[in-house]
Amino acid sequence: TNRTFTMIKPDAVEGGHTGAIIRMIEEAGFRIVAIRKTQLTPERAGQFYAVHRERPFYNDLRAYMSSGAIIPMILEKDNAVADFRKLIGATNPAQAEEGTIRKLYARSMEANAVHGSDSDENAEIESNFFFAGTEQY
Ligand code: ATP
């Protein structure tokens, strides 16, 4: 088995797409290992996206990611990281393929509905950012 980390971002939670997105995730063969609902402070959003701290969109991203509730999840499936990136589609929804989560639910490059880890290593770091070890079963 193999795991990835995702969160449903504020635009999609606010837009009422949580159920539809979780349904797509389960129908694609992912098992939900851990799930919660929470809201990031700007400080914690900045920590989560610290790799982007030199990018021009960093301050906006921090504000956006702390603007409402998010739903972090740990997912399990063979080849989880790569298969999940395929399911969500390109960062920019204008370039996301038909049938992907972002094509269906993203509003913009920034408010793009979901996050998906880009490596096994980051999946573990990001999972530990939101979940205690005892929750990760
Ligand atoms: P994520 O890490 O959320 O799965 P990603 O790997 O597709 O997304 P990254 O390049 O890691 O994209 O960027 C992280 C997030 O920062 C994006 O999901 C998006 O919300 C935001 N972002 C990235 N590029 C831009 C941009 N040019 N303008 C505004 N926001 C951006």
From TrEMBL:
The active site is at H115. GO terms for biological process: CTP biosynthetic process; GTP biosynthetic process; UTP biosynthetic process. It is an enzyme of class 2 (transferase). Major role in the synthesis of nucleoside triphosphates other than ATP. The ATP gamma phosphate is transferred to the NDP beta phosphate via a ping-pong mechanism, using a phosphorylated active-site intermediate. Its EC number is 2.7.4.6. Belongs to the NDK family. This is Nucleoside diphosphate kinase. Residues 1-135 form the Nucleoside diphosphate kinase-like domain. It comes from Spirosoma oryzae. Keywords: ATP-binding, Cytoplasm, Kinase, Magnesium, Metal-binding, Nucleotide metabolism, Nucleotide-binding, Phosphoprotein, Transferase. ATP binds at K9, F57, R85, T91, R102, N112. It is found in: Cytoplasm. Coiled coil: none annotated. One of its GO terms (cellular component) is cytoplasm. Its cofactor is Mg(2+). It comes from the Bacteria. It catalyses: a 2'-deoxyribonucleoside 5'-diphosphate + ATP = a 2'-deoxyribonucleoside 5'-triphosphate + ADP; a ribonucleoside 5'-diphosphate + ATP = a ribonucleoside 5'-triphosphate + ADP. The gene is ndk. Gene3D superfamilies: Nucleoside diphosphate kinase-like domain. One of its GO terms (molecular function) is nucleoside diphosphate kinase activity. Homotetramer.
